[in-house]
Amino acid sequence: MRKPSTLVRLALLVFTAVVVGVVSAQSSTVLRVASTAAVTTWDPSLSFSTEAFYMANLYEPLIWANAAGSDEQFTPALATSWELSDDGLSWTFHLRDGVKFHDGETMDADAVVRSIERHKAIGGAAFIWEPVDKIVAVDDLTVRFDLKYPTPLDLVVASSNGAWIVSPAALDAAEEDASYFEAGIAAGTGPYMLAEYQPDAEVVLRAFPDYWGGWGDVEHFENVVIRIVSDAVLQEQMLLAGEVDLALSLPVTSYQSILDNPAYNVQTVVTPYSYLGFLNTLRAPLDDVRVRQAIAYAVPYLDLIAVGAEGFASQARGPVPQGIFPWSEEIPQYHQDLEKARALLAEAGHEGGGFTLHLTYSAENAIERAFAPVLADGLAEIGIKIEIEPLLWNQQWAVAKDDPENAQDIFLVLYWPTISDAGSDNLWTMFHSSDAPYFNLSYWKNDKFDDLVDEAIKLTGTDRDAAQALYLDAMDIVYDEAPGLFFFDYGGWFAIPTYLAGYEYNVNYPFATFFYPLHLAN
Amino acid sequence: MGLLQFITRRLMLSLLVLFGVATIVFMLTRIIPSNPASLYLGPRARPAEIAEINAKFGFDKPLIEQYGQFLKGLARGDLGNSLATKRPVTKELGSRLAATLELMSVAMLLAVIVGIPLGVLSTRMRGRLGEAIVRVATVVGVSLPPFWLGLLLQLVFVHALGWLPAAGRVDGSLRFTAPITSITGLNLFDTLVTGNFVAFYDAFRHIVLPALTLAAYPIGLITRMTRAAMIEVVSQDYIRTARAYGVAERRVLNHFALRNAVGPTLTVIGLTLAFMLTGTFYVEVIFAWPGLGSFTVRSFLNVDYPSILGMTLFGAAGYVLANLVVDACQALIDPRMRLA
């Protein structure tokens, strides 16, 4: 018999190897994910951006905030129980025993104190710890937070940024070398360890065998390979081609086709992402409240939602996103009423409009890019011309902060709260007065509003209902004074393959996808 | 002038060019309104933190002083840290270089092994239908916007036919089934050398579409240039003489004519390398290829100027070097060329 040629043997070898490879790929417990989440830092203190997507799987806070509508507001994580002192100035957390960090260190009160103190000192979200006066390790498994003033610390310790508990050994290393974590090091207690990291390309997570939550109840994924893909259309291609199991940023225009595809279950969600526009209250004619109200009445809210969000949004009620405290259906909202808008303009001495406003938006934001012209069309209906200028976010923000009186008239922004308290975050950050503009880019100052918000913040920890009432009063002022335009709270949807189970979106951790609960269906 | 002397002189001139490029890009990136400290720290950095970073990196110093610092760093090979990733720019470029080199090499190989034979073929088939087909194909290749071609290829080969993957260099789960042992960082080479055929096949499938997209324009250009040069050469006396002696037409074209016609094509290949480097900007974004191109795009969007500067210098150096190599190759291939 003739022997096969070298070429034929090589081809057979390649074919066999390919088949073996394909078969083994299908049998391994790997979850493949496409996400837009780039990593700006691996430092759990500095982290304040899209890497929260990974952090929530690598690290844990003391407690998790549950999704809106849950029976309990919180789920214990590294703390099993907690209590507040009668004066509202001291919170005590009892820690879980026997928890290990990825590097083998033991989680205890000292680790918690050191982690939070570092977040407070250098953190990207350090401001959330502002009310904390000192943190005390009462014993190995008890931590007490003494506050400067009453504050809802349960919401703070459950923050999606700057509340992760970190291994003391890693903190020591970071003290020696400030860029210690940037090599791609994570040292948390979370269910997954950081196995590999290729900047802008791929992140690989591997199951942490000593995870306190265990691995036995369902068949969790041992490995999660996350491909960083910034383009939504490409993510869709990858999902449909079977290159990934989950694609977390799909084009909104593909909603119907995915919904009709029996291979996917579609989950629609409410997100904490609010789209709004700051009106520059320092410049004429926007320094006149009637002009601002006229603009608020001229905004075509429903058209903005249709064009900007393809219908996946609900009209905003003030600066607080739906589903996050202190959102309420009682918060008043403007609706398009062109007659009223024209009357207000005339009353302000601008009959028929006749002036031009300069609007800036973040050039990277496709949603703002889509709805900005629709907004301009709406305002044109009452004779106001809008000059639209896209700027990179970094530039837009720098221009707005450097010289408010010569800055833009309308500043479009996407905002979401860092902690699940949009009162102390959204309301305070965006509309509380300050000497130098920080995020209050309408440059609005209202003493009564400031007092109400300051008071509400102090009450939230001890009497949430009373705080809510104060916030409602504050938002009435925002409604009357119209320093901003509140367009919509963005919704979203996820396509989950029918072979996957356990996916749950948590509005309190909008950047995160929790891989631990995910498993193969059946 | 000897080859060594020529290379030394060109390298010295190249340094001047790179210095000019560095200066222009440095000034351009600094006059764009931007707040580097807030980019470094994130959108909600406190004023005190911003001041600290400004002081640490010298962002608050006069421009000329910052420029001096930059040149000092450059002389030490230090391009500073990326504002977005906080890692040294040299490290960022180094970690992505292999991916881009691999993509460019495969695309260039494709362009040369398709473009030159097509150019010769169209010369041979002058005035016939085959030439017309090649001409139309090359015009299409040169005219098609590459980003559009990339999306079209994805639509056909990924979405409709399901033959090829849409993105990345290898499948995400390959590291668990057939891990690649990195030697050079060039996946195709490394997998072949180590006999990892599963990974080779996977890497090959992943590179086909991006390489084809990147090669479309150079294929057209090289074909057209080879054809034009060949037509000029075949009208010369020595070719007529060769034919008169009864030398086979294939040998006349491939051996005598092509050798003399390839000079201009080599120049085009050198220029095409620069095109390819900028071409990777969109090809890498379209195919989520983790190389220098996608990094550059992200750096531009973030106004991450240490990275922009680093990438621009790298690109300029690559361009200058490619031209130098092409000139040297021309001199070696065609002794009539003078090194000057």
How is the topology of this model organized?
The complex is a heterodimer of chains A (522) and B (340).
Chain A: H1 6-27, E1 30-35, H2 52-58, E2 63-65, E3 74-76, E4 79-84, E5 90-95, H3 109-122, E6 132-139, E7 142-147, H4 153-157, H5 168-176, E8 192-198, E9 202-207, E10 223-228, H6 232-240, E11 246-247, H7 255-259, E12 264-279, H8 289-298, H9 301-308, E13 313-315, H10 338-347, E14 355-362, H11 366-380, E15 384-391, H12 393-402, E16 410-415, H13 423-431, H14 447-460, H15 464-481, E17 484-497, E18 500-501, E19 519-520
Parallel strand pairs in A: 1-10, 1-11, 14-15, 14-16
Antiparallel strand pairs in A: 2-3, 4-5, 5-7, 6-7, 8-9, 9-10, 12-16, 12-17, 13-17, 18-19
Helix pairs in contact in A: 8-10, 9-11, 13-14, 14-15
Chain B: H1 3-31, H2 36-41, H3 47-57, H4 63-75, H5 89-124, H6 129-143, H7 146-160, H8 174-177, H9 187-193, H10 197-234, H11 237-244, H12 249-286, H13 292-302, H14 305-333
Write up what this structure looks like.
- The complex is a heterodimer of chains A (522) and B (340).
- Chain A is α+β, with helices and mostly antiparallel strands.
- Helices cover 32% and strands 23% of the residues of chain A.
- Chain A contains 15 helices and 19 strands.
- In chain A, the strands form five sheets. In chain A, strands 13-17-12-16-14-15 form a six-stranded mixed sheet.
- The longest helix of chain A is centred in the N-terminal third of the chain and has 22 residues.
- About 3% of the residues of chain A have low confidence.
- In chain B, 76% of the residues lie in helices and 0% in strands.
- Chain B contains 14 helices and no strands.
- In chain B, helix 5 packs parallel to helix 14.
- In chain B, 41% of the residues are buried.
- Classes of the chains: A alpha+beta (522), B mainly alpha (340).
Task: Report a brief summary of the structure.
The complex is a heterodimer of chains A (522) and B (340). By secondary structure, chain A is of the alpha+beta class. Helix content of chain A is 32%, strand content 23%.
